[in-house]
Every structure is written in structure tokens, then in C-alpha cells.
Amino acid sequence: LLHDIIPIGIRSSKLMALALALVMTAITAVSVALFALHVWWFPVNITLHGPAIDHQFTITFFVMGTIFVLAQIGLAYLAWRYRSRNDGRRARYVLANNRLEVAWMVAAAIIFFGLEFMGFQTWTRMHYMGPQAHALRIEAWGEQFAWYFRYPGPDGVFGPIHPSLMNDAMGNYLGLDRQHDPASRDDIVTATLGIPVDTPIELILRSKDVIHSFFCPELRIKQDLVPGMKIPIHFTVTKQALKEHGGRYEIACTQLCGMGHYRMRAFLQVMTKKKFQEWLKK
């Protein structure tokens, strides 16, 4: 009886190892195909800096994808090569290869810092340009669970914020004292982020309460809002934005900020310069 059962056990272990190797290979092939065919990919880009962001992502995906494929193929091979043979052999301890470990650590560091260096200039242009003379300055405020956007008005100056005056029920979302602060009288606060095309924008991100995250995929911008900090983002929207979705794009909060996080969203409305001025006056 044992003479008949042992060959069956050997065949079973071979089939299991082969099935595991084939499943891992299939998962790898499907994963690569989904990226290669752009089944789930970026939405349309509407900014000048977008191509650089997309290029950086493509390089990162290619490098990481190559490592992923090699690792999965190696794992599938090892699952088959070292399958159980039901021959009574005991497991044995194998010492690590220190040279191989050091080589892999150095290679990973080179790849990491190389990708970081490649994306540094684009990131710097978005975050650390400093004030631009002709840039339209807009504040984006996040609170649980809404967005507000403030424009400085004709004087080009934002009025001071008074936390003690913040009252959503009275419509004073940002605590402006329009009676005593001259710079606040012409400030405009909206629930929609209106932007003209071909105009440098300095979007200043601020939070009223907890950490939020400003995310608009078409702008290629995703940045946290930290309470007590003013975080500037610089970008310019192209005319391509007017051709897609009527110039209207969703802005979402992608940092879990409380029970109402799921409904914290607003919209970006891209307009021609003339329509933007009309919208702002209205």
C-alpha cells in the first residue's frame, strides 16, 4: 500500500509546485499588461508641469516594474525548484550571502536617490519658486469637511485672519473683519476654485483644523495642508483644460480627516481670462 501511495504524493507535490509557479507567473503577466495597455492610467494633463510629472512616473514604473517582474519570476522558479519531494530530507539552514546583501542594498540606494534627483527640479519649480510678479495668488482653505478659496481682490492683498471671528453659520468662513481691516473688504471667498488659462497661479494651501490633502489629478498636484502652515504651489493651466469636461474638474481631500472625509470635495473651474474676470466680478 505504501509503495502505491508514495508516488501519488510525489506527483501531488509536483502539481502543487507547478500550479503555484504558474499562478505567480500569470499574476505577473496580467499586472504588466494592465500597465502596458494603460487600462488604469492618468487622466488628461492640463498644466505645464504635467509632462515632467508623467515622465517621472513612467520612469519609476519602468524601473520598479522590471524589479517586480524579475522578483516574481525568481519566486516562481524557486517554488518549483525547491518543491517538496517527499523523500524524507530534512530542512537545513543556509547562511546569508553578505556580499549579495550589500550589493542589493547599494543598488537600491542608487535607484532611490537617482529617481529623487531626477524629480527634484520639477518638485522645486512647483514648491520653491517664490512669489512671481504676475502670478494670481489664491488661498485654498480646508476644514472639516469643506473647501474654501480666497481671492485678494483689486488691491492684490489678503486681509488678516481672525480665528475668533470664524463662523460658518454666519458665512464668515475665514474670520475676516471687513469693517476694520481695509485689505479684507475686497477679498472674495468662494466654494469653487476658478482659474484662468495661461496664467501663472500661486495656490497657497492652508488648514483651519486638521491635516487635509489637496488632490486634483488633472493638475498633477497632491499636497497636504498642515494647520499653522502656508504651503505654496505654483502651476499654469493650459488651454487643453477648456477642451475636457467643460473645464470642470474635481478636487478631493485624500487625507483621512474625520467621519465626513468622504464628502469633502470641491471643483476646479478653468475659464478664459475674460470669463474669469466676469466670474470674479459676479
Write a structural description.
By secondary structure, this protein is an alpha+beta fold. It has five helices and ten strands; from the N terminus they run αααββββββββαββα. It has helices spanning 2-36, 50-81, 98-127, 240-243, 273-281, and strands at 136-143, 146-151, 188-190, 192-196, 200-207, 212-216, 221-225, 231-236, 248-253, 265-271. The strands form two sheets. A five-stranded mixed β-sheet has the order 3-2-1-5-8. Helix 1 runs antiparallel to helix 2 (50-81) and helix 2 runs antiparallel to helix 3. The chain is elongated, with a radius of gyration of 28 Å. Mean pLDDT is 88; it is low at 1-6.
List strands and helices in order, with pairings.
Blueprint: H1 2-36, H2 50-81, H3 98-127, E1 136-143, E2 146-151, E3 188-190, E4 192-196, E5 200-207, E6 212-216, E7 221-225, E8 231-236, H4 240-243, E9 248-253, E10 265-271, H5 273-281
Parallel strand pairs: 1-5, 4-10
Antiparallel strand pairs: 1-2, 2-3, 5-8, 6-7, 6-9, 9-10
Helix pairs in contact: 1-2, 2-3
- Specify the number of helices: 5
* String of helices and strands: HHHEEEEEEEEHEEH
- Total number of beta strands: 10
Which percent bin holds the helix content? 25-40%
Q: What spatial form do the alpha-carbon principal axes imply?
A: elongated
Order of adjacent strands in the largest pleated sheet: 3-2-1-5-8
Task: Please tag this protein with its features.
single chain, five-stranded mixed beta sheet, 10 strands, disordered N terminus
Briefly summarize what is shown.
The protein has helices at residues 2-36, 50-81, 98-127, 240-243, 273-281, and strands at residues 136-143, 146-151, 188-190, 192-196, 200-207, 212-216, 221-225, 231-236, 248-253, 265-271. It has 282 residues and is an alpha+beta fold.
